[in-house]
Amino acid sequence: MSDDDGRPPSPDSRRGPTSDEGVLTRLRTAEEGPLLFVRELLTSALAVLAVGLLLFALSGVWPPMVAVESGSMEPHMHKGDLVFITGPERYAPDSAVEGTAVVTAETGAEVDYRKFGGPGSVIVYDDPGSAGPPIIHRAMFWVDDGENWYDRANPEYMSADNCRELANCPAEYSGFITKGDNNPRYDQVSGIADPVRPEWVQGVARIRIPLLGWVRLTLANSMATTTPVAPAPVEFVDVPTMETTVPDASTANAAGSDAPATTAPLRVEAGNTPMRTAALAA
């Protein structure tokens, strides 16, 4: 009984601080056990989130980092590198193509603008008419709609003797001619892509972090190999009944030449088990 009013103390007064405050306090001050693990996990997640938001604020695109998947940009970029990119119109130099942040190699050589071991900008673009992931290559020069760009191109990167032999010459629209530093031909000559429209450019490469992209590539490959495989149905096909004749050995001529022989029908019927093939889910 309470000395003051004769009533027993309430359960809340006996419990002291609220249960929520108690959990938060224990989580904040834990030095071992599950609460310490949970606190470290939450701290790491918040740190990753903060870094991601900071990179997004700087780059203006998401994701702000891409992994290099091939050696087409060697020796300046290698497979497994992680590349930080910014928006296609962000941080545009004075020498960039109007409306973009892209400086072509042609212009870069004139104004001494160099990125990743060569003149001009390295861009990430995605040609909607081509299969596969986005491509990270150097922007070589800009072509205008209807332009015969054969004479401006470097003959070493061509496989044609004139504009008529090129699929994209004269240019059907304005865009970038691109090339991997380690590739022998322009992308638009080898059939990798059509002239790159500005709206296809997803970002401009700024910083390369060696090897760190292997984490993403390994994760992506493991997810692809563990994706459930679903069978693709194949329709039943009615196979017509075929009939042929075979000689009856009991009545065949002993000499095996011109004597007539009775025949018995041989019937071949299609089975009822469907044929199936498997397609890997993308």
Unreliable residue stretches: 228-282
Cα separation of the termini: 71 Å
Strand order of the largest sheet: 1-2-8-5-6-7
CA radius of gyration: 35 Å
- Largest sheet, if any? 6 strands, antiparallel
The total of helices stands at: 6
Number of strands: 12
Fraction of residues in helix: 10-25%
Q: Tell me, briefly, the overall form.
A: elongated
Structural class: alpha+beta
* Series of H and E elements: HHHEEHEEEEEHEHEEEE
**Strand-residue fraction?**
15-25%
Mean pLDDT reading:
78
What oligomeric arrangement do these chains adopt? single chain
Q: What this model shows, in words?
A:
- Among the domains are: 28-59, no CATH class; 65-225, no CATH class.
- The chain is α+β, with helices and mostly antiparallel strands and 282 residues long.
- The protein has helices at 11-15, 19-29, 34-59, 105-111, 187-190, 213-225, and strands spanning 65-67, 82-86, 114-115, 118-119, 122-125, 135-143, 175-179, 201-209, 229-232, 242-247, 263-268, 277-280.
- The radius of gyration is 35 Å and the shape is elongated.
- Helix 2 (19-29) packs across helix 3.
- A six-stranded antiparallel beta sheet has the order 1-2-8-5-6-7.
- Mean pLDDT is 78; it is low at 228-282.
- Helix content is 23%, strand content 21%.
